[in-house]
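Hello, quick one for you while I still have it in my head. Could you read through the record and tell me how the C-alpha coordinates relate to the sequence? No rush at all, and the record is pasted right below.
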Amino acid sequence: MKKLNIFLTAFALLTGFSSCENELDVVNTNNQTTYEFGNNISDLQEAVIACYNRIRLEGTFARVGYTMDAVRGDEVWNSSQQWYLEYDNLNSPGTIDIGDQWIWRDWYHVINRANFILSKVDKVSMPEKTYNQIAGQAYFLRGLAYYYLATYYQTVPLITDYSDYIDMNSLYAANVTQDEVLDQVESDLGKAMTMLPSRDEGGEWAKGRATSGSAAGYMARALMFRHKFADAYEILKDIIAGEYGHYDLMPDYGANFMEGPENENNIESLFEVQFMDFGTGGTDQEWTPVNISPQSTQGHAVESNYASQEYGSWGDLAGSPWLYNLYKKERTTDNRLDPRLYWTLVTYEPEYDSYTGLTTAAYPDGDPRKNVVYKASVTRTPLSNTAQGGISIAKFTYARADKTEAVTTGLHCGINIRLMRYSDVLLRAAECENELHGPTQIAIDYINQVRERVALPPLQLDDFPTADHLFEQIANVERPKEFGCENGRGIDLLRWGFFYDEGRLQQLRQHGFYRLPGTGEQPVAGTDELTEETATRSTYDSYYKGHEYFPIFQGTLNANPKLTGNSANKSSDNSTSFKERYNIRPVVNLND
Protein backbone atom coordinates (compact mmCIF):
# COMPACT_ATOMS: atom_id res chain seq x y z
CA MET A 1 0.00 0.00 0.00
CA LYS A 2 2.87 2.34 0.87
CA LYS A 3 4.49 1.66 -2.51
CA LEU A 4 1.15 2.23 -4.24
CA ASN A 5 0.71 5.58 -2.44
CA ILE A 6 4.19 6.65 -3.50
CA PHE A 7 3.41 5.65 -7.09
CA LEU A 8 0.08 7.51 -7.12
CA THR A 9 1.64 10.62 -5.61
CA ALA A 10 4.45 10.62 -8.19
CA PHE A 11 1.94 10.09 -10.99
CA ALA A 12 -0.21 12.96 -9.71
CA LEU A 13 2.80 15.25 -9.56
CA LEU A 14 3.88 14.33 -13.08
CA THR A 15 0.46 14.81 -14.55
CA GLY A 16 0.07 18.02 -12.61
CA PHE A 17 3.32 19.37 -13.95
CA SER A 18 2.47 18.35 -17.50
CA SER A 19 -1.00 19.84 -17.30
CA CYS A 20 0.38 23.07 -15.87
CA GLU A 21 2.94 23.13 -18.62
CA ASN A 22 0.27 22.67 -21.29
CA GLU A 23 -1.90 25.40 -19.83
CA LEU A 24 0.95 27.86 -19.71
CA ASP A 25 2.16 27.05 -23.21
CA VAL A 26 -0.04 29.64 -24.94
CA VAL A 27 0.93 31.32 -28.20
CA ASN A 28 0.39 35.08 -28.27
CA THR A 29 -1.30 35.59 -31.63
CA ASN A 30 -0.44 39.29 -31.48
CA ASN A 31 3.28 38.55 -31.34
CA GLN A 32 3.84 36.51 -34.45
CA THR A 33 7.28 35.71 -35.79
CA THR A 34 8.39 35.38 -39.40
CA TYR A 35 8.25 31.60 -38.91
CA GLU A 36 4.54 31.72 -38.10
CA PHE A 37 3.51 34.61 -40.35
CA GLY A 38 3.22 34.42 -44.12
CA ASN A 39 1.93 30.86 -44.35
CA ASN A 40 -1.39 31.74 -45.96
CA ILE A 41 -2.72 34.01 -48.68
CA SER A 42 -4.08 36.62 -46.29
CA ASP A 43 -0.73 37.01 -44.52
CA LEU A 44 1.11 37.37 -47.81
CA GLN A 45 -1.32 40.00 -49.08
CA GLU A 46 -0.75 41.95 -45.86
CA ALA A 47 3.01 41.62 -46.36
CA VAL A 48 2.68 43.10 -49.85
CA ILE A 49 0.85 46.11 -48.42
CA ALA A 50 3.57 46.43 -45.77
CA CYS A 51 6.13 46.45 -48.57
CA TYR A 52 4.35 49.33 -50.31
CA ASN A 53 4.31 51.16 -46.99
CA ARG A 54 8.11 51.24 -46.97
CA ILE A 55 8.24 53.28 -50.20
CA ARG A 56 6.46 56.04 -48.30
CA LEU A 57 9.20 56.61 -45.73
CA GLU A 58 11.53 59.57 -45.36
CA GLY A 59 14.37 57.88 -47.22
CA THR A 60 12.26 56.58 -50.09
CA PHE A 61 9.57 58.97 -51.35
CA ALA A 62 8.18 60.80 -48.33
CA ARG A 63 11.04 63.29 -48.32
CA VAL A 64 14.75 62.93 -49.02
CA GLY A 65 14.67 59.92 -51.31
CA TYR A 66 12.69 62.02 -53.76
CA THR A 67 14.33 65.40 -53.34
CA MET A 68 17.93 64.14 -53.32
CA ASP A 69 17.82 63.26 -56.99
CA ALA A 70 16.13 66.55 -57.82
CA VAL A 71 18.86 68.57 -56.09
CA ARG A 72 21.49 66.51 -57.93
CA GLY A 73 20.01 67.80 -61.18
CA ASP A 74 20.63 71.12 -62.90
CA GLU A 75 17.10 72.51 -62.62
CA VAL A 76 17.02 72.66 -58.81
CA TRP A 77 19.30 74.32 -56.26
CA ASN A 78 19.43 74.22 -52.47
CA SER A 79 18.10 77.61 -51.43
CA SER A 80 18.21 76.84 -47.69
CA GLN A 81 22.04 76.52 -47.75
CA GLN A 82 21.78 73.71 -45.19
CA TRP A 83 20.48 70.15 -45.08
CA TYR A 84 20.94 69.47 -48.79
CA LEU A 85 23.94 71.73 -49.37
CA GLU A 86 26.57 68.99 -49.68
CA TYR A 87 24.39 67.13 -52.15
CA ASP A 88 23.62 70.24 -54.16
CA ASN A 89 27.38 70.91 -54.27
CA LEU A 90 28.11 67.22 -54.96
CA ASN A 91 30.79 66.94 -52.28
CA SER A 92 29.28 65.13 -49.28
CA PRO A 93 31.94 63.76 -46.88
CA GLY A 94 29.91 60.60 -46.26
CA THR A 95 29.08 61.39 -42.65
CA ILE A 96 25.65 63.01 -43.07
CA ASP A 97 22.58 60.96 -42.20
CA ILE A 98 20.09 62.66 -44.48
CA GLY A 99 21.45 61.41 -47.80
CA ASP A 100 24.22 58.99 -46.97
CA GLN A 101 22.17 56.78 -44.65
CA TRP A 102 18.41 57.37 -44.75
CA ILE A 103 17.87 56.43 -48.40
CA TRP A 104 20.03 53.32 -48.01
CA ARG A 105 18.22 52.30 -44.81
CA ASP A 106 14.69 52.63 -46.14
CA TRP A 107 15.26 50.94 -49.50
CA TYR A 108 16.76 47.94 -47.73
CA HIS A 109 13.58 47.77 -45.65
CA VAL A 110 11.67 47.41 -48.92
CA ILE A 111 14.08 44.68 -50.06
CA ASN A 112 13.78 42.85 -46.73
CA ARG A 113 10.00 42.67 -47.00
CA ALA A 114 10.05 41.70 -50.67
CA ASN A 115 12.54 38.93 -49.90
CA PHE A 116 10.28 37.71 -47.10
CA ILE A 117 7.29 37.48 -49.44
CA LEU A 118 9.30 35.61 -52.06
CA SER A 119 10.63 33.19 -49.43
CA LYS A 120 7.08 32.22 -48.46
CA VAL A 121 4.92 32.47 -51.55
CA ASP A 122 6.00 29.19 -53.18
CA LYS A 123 5.03 27.24 -50.04
CA VAL A 124 1.42 28.41 -49.96
CA SER A 125 -1.23 26.79 -52.12
CA MET A 126 -3.19 29.39 -54.08
CA PRO A 127 -4.71 30.05 -57.52
CA GLU A 128 -2.19 31.02 -60.20
CA LYS A 129 -3.70 34.49 -60.58
CA THR A 130 -3.25 35.20 -56.87
CA TYR A 131 0.27 33.82 -56.92
CA ASN A 132 1.23 36.03 -59.84
CA GLN A 133 -0.22 39.10 -58.16
CA ILE A 134 1.62 38.52 -54.87
CA ALA A 135 4.96 37.42 -56.28
CA GLY A 136 4.81 39.91 -59.16
CA GLN A 137 4.40 42.87 -56.82
CA ALA A 138 7.29 41.65 -54.65
CA TYR A 139 9.53 41.33 -57.70
CA PHE A 140 8.56 44.80 -58.89
CA LEU A 141 9.17 46.44 -55.52
CA ARG A 142 12.52 44.71 -55.08
CA GLY A 143 13.52 45.72 -58.61
CA LEU A 144 12.40 49.29 -57.88
CA ALA A 145 14.50 49.35 -54.70
CA TYR A 146 17.65 48.09 -56.38
CA TYR A 147 17.15 50.48 -59.32
CA TYR A 148 17.29 53.46 -56.97
CA LEU A 149 20.09 52.02 -54.85
CA ALA A 150 22.21 51.42 -57.96
CA THR A 151 21.57 54.89 -59.38
CA TYR A 152 22.07 56.63 -56.02
CA TYR A 153 24.93 54.62 -54.48
CA GLN A 154 26.53 52.90 -57.49
CA THR A 155 27.79 49.69 -55.78
CA VAL A 156 25.67 48.09 -53.04
CA PRO A 157 25.19 44.67 -51.41
CA LEU A 158 22.86 42.38 -53.34
CA ILE A 159 20.66 40.34 -50.98
CA THR A 160 17.91 38.29 -52.60
CA ASP A 161 17.52 35.36 -50.18
CA TYR A 162 15.56 35.96 -46.99
CA SER A 163 17.51 33.23 -45.19
CA ASP A 164 20.60 35.41 -45.46
CA TYR A 165 19.24 37.56 -42.64
CA ILE A 166 19.68 34.78 -40.07
CA ASP A 167 23.39 34.35 -40.70
CA MET A 168 25.83 37.12 -39.76
CA ASN A 169 28.25 36.12 -42.52
CA SER A 170 25.64 36.55 -45.25
CA LEU A 171 23.87 39.47 -43.57
CA TYR A 172 27.05 41.53 -43.67
CA ALA A 173 27.30 41.33 -47.42
CA ALA A 174 29.95 42.92 -49.61
CA ASN A 175 29.32 45.37 -52.43
CA VAL A 176 28.74 43.98 -55.88
CA THR A 177 29.26 45.88 -59.10
CA GLN A 178 26.63 48.25 -60.42
CA ASP A 179 26.15 45.93 -63.39
CA GLU A 180 25.36 43.01 -61.09
CA VAL A 181 22.75 45.09 -59.29
CA LEU A 182 21.18 46.21 -62.56
CA ASP A 183 21.21 42.62 -63.82
CA GLN A 184 19.07 41.78 -60.80
CA VAL A 185 16.81 44.76 -61.52
CA GLU A 186 16.25 43.51 -65.05
CA SER A 187 15.55 40.00 -63.79
CA ASP A 188 13.04 41.14 -61.18
CA LEU A 189 11.26 43.57 -63.49
CA GLY A 190 11.19 40.99 -66.27
CA LYS A 191 9.32 38.59 -63.98
CA ALA A 192 6.96 41.33 -62.84
CA MET A 193 6.20 42.24 -66.47
CA THR A 194 4.93 38.73 -67.19
CA MET A 195 3.24 38.04 -63.84
CA LEU A 196 1.35 41.24 -63.10
CA PRO A 197 -1.87 42.19 -64.85
CA SER A 198 -2.13 45.34 -66.90
CA ARG A 199 -4.02 48.30 -65.48
CA ASP A 200 -6.94 47.33 -67.75
CA GLU A 201 -6.96 43.68 -66.67
CA GLY A 202 -6.45 44.54 -63.00
CA GLY A 203 -9.36 46.96 -62.84
CA GLU A 204 -10.07 48.30 -59.36
CA TRP A 205 -7.45 45.95 -57.86
CA ALA A 206 -4.71 47.56 -59.96
CA LYS A 207 -5.49 51.13 -58.89
CA GLY A 208 -2.52 52.31 -56.86
CA ARG A 209 -0.61 49.04 -57.30
CA ALA A 210 2.24 48.02 -59.56
CA THR A 211 1.09 46.57 -62.88
CA SER A 212 2.81 45.03 -65.87
CA GLY A 213 2.95 48.57 -67.31
CA SER A 214 4.76 49.82 -64.21
CA ALA A 215 7.33 47.05 -64.55
CA ALA A 216 7.72 47.62 -68.30
CA GLY A 217 8.28 51.34 -67.79
CA TYR A 218 10.98 50.81 -65.18
CA MET A 219 12.53 48.05 -67.26
CA ALA A 220 12.96 50.56 -70.10
CA ARG A 221 14.58 52.98 -67.65
CA ALA A 222 16.98 50.32 -66.35
CA LEU A 223 17.94 49.26 -69.88
CA MET A 224 18.54 52.83 -71.01
CA PHE A 225 20.76 53.48 -68.00
CA ARG A 226 23.18 51.00 -69.62
CA HIS A 227 22.51 52.27 -73.16
CA LYS A 228 20.61 49.13 -74.20
CA PHE A 229 18.55 51.28 -76.52
CA ALA A 230 17.31 48.55 -78.85
CA ASP A 231 15.94 46.41 -76.01
CA ALA A 232 14.41 49.43 -74.27
CA TYR A 233 12.83 50.65 -77.51
CA GLU A 234 10.97 47.39 -78.07
CA ILE A 235 9.42 47.65 -74.62
CA LEU A 236 8.55 51.32 -75.05
CA LYS A 237 6.86 50.61 -78.39
CA ASP A 238 4.84 47.83 -76.74
CA ILE A 239 3.71 50.23 -74.00
CA ILE A 240 2.66 52.75 -76.65
CA ALA A 241 0.82 50.00 -78.55
CA GLY A 242 -1.18 49.09 -75.44
CA GLU A 243 0.46 45.73 -74.75
CA TYR A 244 0.60 46.59 -71.04
CA GLY A 245 -2.70 48.40 -70.81
CA HIS A 246 -3.99 51.66 -72.24
CA TYR A 247 -2.00 54.80 -71.41
CA ASP A 248 -2.39 58.30 -72.75
CA LEU A 249 -1.55 61.89 -71.91
CA MET A 250 -3.97 63.67 -69.60
CA PRO A 251 -5.51 66.62 -71.47
CA ASP A 252 -4.57 68.82 -68.50
CA TYR A 253 -0.85 68.71 -67.65
CA GLY A 254 -1.66 69.99 -64.15
CA ALA A 255 -3.79 66.95 -63.35
CA ASN A 256 -0.55 65.05 -62.80
CA PHE A 257 0.29 67.18 -59.75
CA MET A 258 -3.06 67.45 -57.97
CA GLU A 259 -4.72 65.18 -55.42
CA GLY A 260 -8.19 63.66 -55.55
CA PRO A 261 -9.64 60.60 -57.31
CA GLU A 262 -10.24 62.52 -60.53
CA ASN A 263 -6.51 63.22 -60.87
CA GLU A 264 -4.54 60.49 -59.11
CA ASN A 265 -3.86 57.10 -60.69
CA ASN A 266 -4.93 58.63 -63.97
CA ILE A 267 -4.48 57.35 -67.50
CA GLU A 268 -1.02 58.96 -67.77
CA SER A 269 0.41 57.36 -64.64
CA LEU A 270 2.48 54.19 -64.96
CA PHE A 271 3.33 54.17 -61.26
CA GLU A 272 2.83 56.53 -58.36
CA VAL A 273 3.28 56.50 -54.60
CA GLN A 274 -0.02 56.62 -52.73
CA PHE A 275 -0.65 59.23 -50.02
CA MET A 276 -3.83 60.24 -48.17
CA ASP A 277 -5.44 63.50 -49.27
CA PHE A 278 -4.66 66.43 -47.00
CA GLY A 279 -6.44 66.18 -43.66
CA THR A 280 -7.87 62.68 -44.22
CA GLY A 281 -5.11 60.70 -42.50
CA GLY A 282 -4.07 60.52 -38.86
CA THR A 283 -2.01 62.94 -36.83
CA ASP A 284 1.22 61.03 -36.13
CA GLN A 285 4.17 61.49 -38.46
CA GLU A 286 5.78 58.22 -39.54
CA TRP A 287 9.28 59.38 -40.48
CA THR A 288 11.34 56.22 -40.00
CA PRO A 289 10.82 52.44 -39.99
CA VAL A 290 10.63 52.32 -36.19
CA ASN A 291 8.05 54.99 -35.31
CA ILE A 292 5.08 53.19 -36.83
CA SER A 293 1.67 54.43 -35.75
CA PRO A 294 -1.89 53.34 -36.59
CA GLN A 295 -2.67 57.06 -36.61
CA SER A 296 -0.08 57.94 -39.27
CA THR A 297 -0.71 61.05 -41.37
CA GLN A 298 0.08 58.96 -44.46
CA GLY A 299 1.36 62.10 -46.16
CA HIS A 300 4.72 63.27 -47.47
CA ALA A 301 7.09 66.16 -46.80
CA VAL A 302 8.14 66.86 -50.40
CA GLU A 303 5.93 69.93 -50.27
CA SER A 304 7.78 71.02 -47.12
CA ASN A 305 11.00 70.99 -49.16
CA TYR A 306 9.55 72.49 -52.34
CA ALA A 307 7.04 75.14 -51.30
CA SER A 308 7.78 78.71 -50.30
CA GLN A 309 8.70 79.66 -46.75
CA GLU A 310 6.23 82.50 -47.18
CA TYR A 311 3.52 79.83 -47.33
CA GLY A 312 4.85 77.90 -44.32
CA SER A 313 7.30 75.35 -45.75
CA TRP A 314 10.99 74.80 -45.02
CA GLY A 315 11.92 76.36 -48.36
CA ASP A 316 14.86 73.98 -48.87
CA LEU A 317 14.88 73.70 -52.65
CA ALA A 318 14.29 76.21 -55.43
CA GLY A 319 13.89 76.05 -59.18
CA SER A 320 16.87 77.25 -61.19
CA PRO A 321 16.74 80.50 -63.18
CA TRP A 322 17.85 78.42 -66.19
CA LEU A 323 14.68 76.32 -66.04
CA TYR A 324 12.46 79.37 -65.62
CA ASN A 325 13.97 81.08 -68.65
CA LEU A 326 13.83 77.86 -70.66
CA TYR A 327 10.05 77.93 -70.29
CA LYS A 328 9.98 81.59 -71.30
CA LYS A 329 11.93 81.08 -74.54
CA GLU A 330 9.07 79.36 -76.34
CA ARG A 331 5.42 80.32 -76.55
CA THR A 332 2.29 78.44 -77.49
CA THR A 333 0.61 78.60 -80.87
CA ASP A 334 -1.58 81.48 -79.65
CA ASN A 335 1.41 83.32 -78.16
CA ARG A 336 0.85 82.41 -74.52
CA LEU A 337 3.21 81.01 -71.92
CA ASP A 338 3.94 77.29 -71.78
CA PRO A 339 1.36 76.08 -69.20
CA ARG A 340 4.01 73.80 -67.66
CA LEU A 341 5.69 76.88 -66.22
CA TYR A 342 2.58 77.51 -64.11
CA TRP A 343 2.60 73.98 -62.69
CA THR A 344 6.36 73.75 -62.15
CA LEU A 345 7.41 77.08 -60.65
CA VAL A 346 5.45 79.48 -58.43
CA THR A 347 5.99 82.70 -60.31
CA TYR A 348 3.48 85.43 -60.83
CA GLU A 349 3.16 86.25 -64.51
CA PRO A 350 0.94 89.25 -65.38
CA GLU A 351 -0.39 87.27 -68.34
CA TYR A 352 -2.09 84.84 -65.97
CA ASP A 353 -4.60 87.54 -65.02
CA SER A 354 -5.97 87.47 -68.55
CA TYR A 355 -6.11 83.69 -68.91
CA THR A 356 -8.80 82.68 -66.43
CA GLY A 357 -12.02 81.55 -68.05
CA LEU A 358 -10.73 82.08 -71.60
CA THR A 359 -10.07 79.57 -74.32
CA THR A 360 -6.45 79.16 -75.36
CA ALA A 361 -4.53 76.85 -77.64
CA ALA A 362 -3.72 74.65 -74.62
CA TYR A 363 -7.37 74.67 -73.50
CA PRO A 364 -9.40 75.02 -76.70
CA ASP A 365 -13.02 76.02 -77.18
CA GLY A 366 -15.38 73.39 -75.84
CA ASP A 367 -12.97 72.38 -73.10
CA PRO A 368 -14.87 72.96 -69.84
CA ARG A 369 -11.70 73.96 -68.01
CA LYS A 370 -11.00 77.08 -70.09
CA ASN A 371 -8.00 77.94 -67.94
CA VAL A 372 -9.83 77.87 -64.65
CA VAL A 373 -6.58 76.45 -63.24
CA TYR A 374 -5.09 79.94 -63.19
CA LYS A 375 -5.99 81.07 -59.70
CA ALA A 376 -5.82 84.60 -58.38
CA SER A 377 -4.34 83.56 -55.03
CA VAL A 378 -0.73 84.02 -56.19
CA THR A 379 -0.49 87.70 -57.05
CA ARG A 380 3.28 88.02 -56.87
CA THR A 381 6.27 85.70 -57.08
CA PRO A 382 6.98 84.43 -53.54
CA LEU A 383 10.48 83.69 -52.26
CA SER A 384 11.41 80.04 -51.99
CA ASN A 385 13.55 80.87 -48.94
CA THR A 386 13.06 84.17 -47.13
CA ALA A 387 16.79 84.44 -46.34
CA GLN A 388 18.33 83.05 -49.52
CA GLY A 389 15.69 83.77 -52.16
CA GLY A 390 15.02 81.49 -55.09
CA ILE A 391 12.00 80.47 -57.18
CA SER A 392 9.53 78.35 -55.25
CA ILE A 393 8.61 74.97 -56.76
CA ALA A 394 4.94 74.24 -57.48
CA LYS A 395 4.94 70.52 -58.31
CA PHE A 396 3.49 68.26 -55.61
CA THR A 397 2.58 71.29 -53.49
CA TYR A 398 -0.72 73.10 -52.88
CA ALA A 399 0.52 76.41 -54.32
CA ARG A 400 -1.49 75.97 -57.53
CA ALA A 401 -4.47 74.30 -55.90
CA ASP A 402 -5.60 77.51 -54.21
CA LYS A 403 -4.84 75.82 -50.89
CA THR A 404 -1.71 77.65 -49.77
CA GLU A 405 -3.17 77.65 -46.26
CA ALA A 406 -2.65 73.87 -46.28
CA VAL A 407 1.12 74.22 -46.69
CA THR A 408 2.73 73.06 -43.48
CA THR A 409 5.99 71.42 -42.53
CA GLY A 410 6.10 67.70 -41.94
CA LEU A 411 4.38 64.68 -43.45
CA HIS A 412 1.05 66.27 -44.32
CA CYS A 413 0.88 66.69 -48.10
CA GLY A 414 -1.45 64.19 -49.74
CA ILE A 415 -0.64 64.64 -53.43
CA ASN A 416 0.38 61.28 -54.88
CA ILE A 417 3.93 61.40 -56.23
CA ARG A 418 3.91 60.24 -59.83
CA LEU A 419 7.15 58.35 -60.42
CA MET A 420 6.60 57.58 -64.09
CA ARG A 421 4.23 59.14 -66.58
CA TYR A 422 3.31 58.26 -70.16
CA SER A 423 5.04 61.40 -71.41
CA ASP A 424 8.29 59.79 -70.22
CA VAL A 425 7.52 56.75 -72.37
CA LEU A 426 7.07 58.99 -75.44
CA LEU A 427 10.23 61.04 -74.89
CA ARG A 428 12.27 57.92 -74.15
CA ALA A 429 10.95 56.31 -77.33
CA ALA A 430 12.08 59.41 -79.24
CA GLU A 431 15.51 59.17 -77.62
CA CYS A 432 15.87 55.48 -78.48
CA GLU A 433 14.75 56.08 -82.07
CA ASN A 434 17.32 58.85 -82.39
CA GLU A 435 20.10 56.74 -80.87
CA LEU A 436 19.39 53.82 -83.17
CA HIS A 437 18.46 55.55 -86.42
CA GLY A 438 19.43 59.18 -86.09
CA PRO A 439 16.91 62.01 -86.38
CA THR A 440 13.76 60.62 -88.00
CA GLN A 441 10.18 61.73 -88.38
CA ILE A 442 9.19 58.91 -86.03
CA ALA A 443 11.26 60.45 -83.23
CA ILE A 444 9.87 63.91 -84.00
CA ASP A 445 6.31 62.57 -83.87
CA TYR A 446 6.84 61.10 -80.40
CA ILE A 447 8.10 64.46 -79.15
CA ASN A 448 5.30 66.39 -80.83
CA GLN A 449 2.68 64.38 -78.95
CA VAL A 450 4.08 65.78 -75.71
CA ARG A 451 4.35 69.31 -77.13
CA GLU A 452 0.83 69.22 -78.57
CA ARG A 453 -0.65 68.66 -75.11
CA VAL A 454 0.64 72.10 -74.05
CA ALA A 455 0.00 73.75 -77.44
CA LEU A 456 3.64 74.29 -78.40
CA PRO A 457 4.30 74.43 -82.16
CA PRO A 458 5.40 71.08 -83.61
CA LEU A 459 9.08 70.41 -84.22
CA GLN A 460 10.24 70.01 -87.80
CA LEU A 461 12.67 67.27 -88.80
CA ASP A 462 14.63 69.66 -91.02
CA ASP A 463 15.67 71.65 -87.94
CA PHE A 464 17.76 68.72 -86.65
CA PRO A 465 20.52 67.84 -89.10
CA THR A 466 22.25 65.30 -86.82
CA ALA A 467 21.44 62.92 -84.01
CA ASP A 468 23.47 65.20 -81.73
CA HIS A 469 21.10 68.07 -82.47
CA LEU A 470 17.97 66.06 -81.72
CA PHE A 471 19.55 64.64 -78.57
CA GLU A 472 20.28 68.18 -77.40
CA GLN A 473 16.63 69.08 -77.94
CA ILE A 474 15.43 66.04 -75.99
CA ALA A 475 17.95 66.28 -73.15
CA ASN A 476 18.06 70.01 -72.54
CA VAL A 477 14.72 71.32 -73.79
CA GLU A 478 11.97 68.71 -73.93
CA ARG A 479 12.81 66.65 -70.85
CA PRO A 480 13.55 69.50 -68.41
CA LYS A 481 10.39 71.38 -69.47
CA GLU A 482 8.21 68.28 -69.13
CA PHE A 483 9.80 66.87 -65.96
CA GLY A 484 11.40 69.92 -64.34
CA CYS A 485 11.72 69.59 -60.54
CA GLU A 486 10.56 65.97 -60.62
CA ASN A 487 12.59 62.99 -59.51
CA GLY A 488 14.79 61.57 -62.28
CA ARG A 489 16.88 64.40 -63.76
CA GLY A 490 19.95 63.43 -61.73
CA ILE A 491 19.70 59.86 -63.01
CA ASP A 492 19.40 61.18 -66.56
CA LEU A 493 22.62 63.17 -66.15
CA LEU A 494 24.36 59.99 -64.99
CA ARG A 495 23.23 57.83 -67.89
CA TRP A 496 24.09 60.50 -70.43
CA GLY A 497 27.62 60.84 -69.01
CA PHE A 498 27.31 64.60 -68.45
CA PHE A 499 29.65 64.40 -65.45
CA TYR A 500 32.39 62.85 -67.58
CA ASP A 501 32.79 65.39 -70.38
CA GLU A 502 34.25 68.87 -69.93
CA GLY A 503 31.81 70.45 -72.39
CA ARG A 504 28.84 68.89 -70.62
CA LEU A 505 30.16 69.84 -67.17
CA GLN A 506 30.50 73.44 -68.28
CA GLN A 507 26.94 73.28 -69.59
CA LEU A 508 25.76 71.98 -66.22
CA ARG A 509 27.60 74.83 -64.49
CA GLN A 510 25.69 77.33 -66.61
CA HIS A 511 22.37 75.61 -65.93
CA GLY A 512 23.16 75.56 -62.20
CA PHE A 513 23.84 79.30 -61.79
CA TYR A 514 22.02 80.92 -58.89
CA ARG A 515 22.22 84.20 -56.99
CA LEU A 516 22.37 84.76 -53.24
CA PRO A 517 21.70 88.19 -51.68
CA GLY A 518 24.81 90.21 -50.97
CA THR A 519 25.52 92.15 -47.81
CA GLY A 520 22.64 94.50 -47.14
CA GLU A 521 20.64 93.16 -50.12
CA GLN A 522 17.18 91.70 -49.92
CA PRO A 523 16.75 88.12 -51.20
CA VAL A 524 15.30 87.82 -54.70
CA ALA A 525 13.12 85.30 -56.43
CA GLY A 526 15.87 84.88 -59.00
CA THR A 527 14.12 84.84 -62.37
CA ASP A 528 16.86 86.74 -64.21
CA GLU A 529 18.86 84.76 -66.73
CA LEU A 530 22.28 84.48 -65.09
CA THR A 531 25.79 84.50 -66.51
CA GLU A 532 29.24 83.91 -65.04
CA GLU A 533 29.39 87.60 -64.19
CA THR A 534 25.93 87.97 -62.63
CA ALA A 535 25.64 84.65 -60.74
CA THR A 536 26.83 84.16 -57.17
CA ARG A 537 27.93 80.65 -58.01
CA SER A 538 26.82 77.38 -59.61
CA THR A 539 25.69 74.22 -57.88
CA TYR A 540 28.45 72.42 -59.81
CA ASP A 541 31.33 74.67 -58.71
CA SER A 542 32.25 72.33 -55.86
CA TYR A 543 31.70 69.02 -57.68
CA TYR A 544 34.20 66.36 -56.60
CA LYS A 545 34.93 63.52 -59.01
CA GLY A 546 32.86 60.47 -58.13
CA HIS A 547 30.25 62.48 -56.21
CA GLU A 548 27.71 62.22 -58.98
CA TYR A 549 26.75 59.28 -56.75
CA PHE A 550 26.00 59.66 -53.04
CA PRO A 551 28.58 58.28 -50.62
CA ILE A 552 27.79 55.25 -48.48
CA PHE A 553 27.39 56.41 -44.88
CA GLN A 554 30.62 56.05 -42.93
CA GLY A 555 28.76 54.50 -39.99
CA THR A 556 27.46 51.77 -42.30
CA LEU A 557 30.98 51.11 -43.58
CA ASN A 558 32.27 50.90 -40.00
CA ALA A 559 29.56 48.40 -39.03
CA ASN A 560 30.08 46.09 -42.02
CA PRO A 561 33.70 44.92 -42.48
CA LYS A 562 32.88 43.47 -45.90
CA LEU A 563 31.57 46.75 -47.28
CA THR A 564 33.80 49.18 -49.16
CA GLY A 565 33.13 52.76 -50.14
CA ASN A 566 31.99 53.76 -53.61
CA SER A 567 33.42 56.40 -55.93
CA ALA A 568 31.97 59.19 -53.77
CA ASN A 569 33.62 57.84 -50.62
CA LYS A 570 36.92 57.69 -52.49
CA SER A 571 36.42 60.77 -54.71
CA SER A 572 37.48 58.60 -57.64
CA ASP A 573 36.91 59.50 -61.28
CA ASN A 574 34.37 57.35 -63.16
CA SER A 575 34.89 59.04 -66.52
CA THR A 576 37.36 56.55 -68.03
CA SER A 577 35.25 53.47 -67.31
CA PHE A 578 32.12 55.23 -68.60
CA LYS A 579 33.75 56.36 -71.85
CA GLU A 580 35.11 52.86 -72.49
CA ARG A 581 31.56 51.54 -72.63
CA TYR A 582 29.25 54.36 -73.65
CA ASN A 583 29.02 57.32 -75.97
CA ILE A 584 28.71 60.88 -74.63
CA ARG A 585 27.08 63.18 -77.11
CA PRO A 586 28.90 66.50 -77.52
CA VAL A 587 27.31 69.86 -76.80
CA VAL A 588 25.80 71.41 -79.92
CA ASN A 589 24.18 74.79 -80.45
CA LEU A 590 20.58 74.29 -81.52
CA ASN A 591 20.59 77.70 -83.19
CA ASP A 592 23.38 76.72 -85.60
The longest helix spans residues 128-153. DSSP finds 24 helices and eight strands in the chain. The two ends are 117 Å apart (CA to CA). Residues 37-195+545-575 form a domain with the Serine Threonine Protein Phosphatase 5, Tetratricopeptide repeat fold (CATH 1.25.40.390).
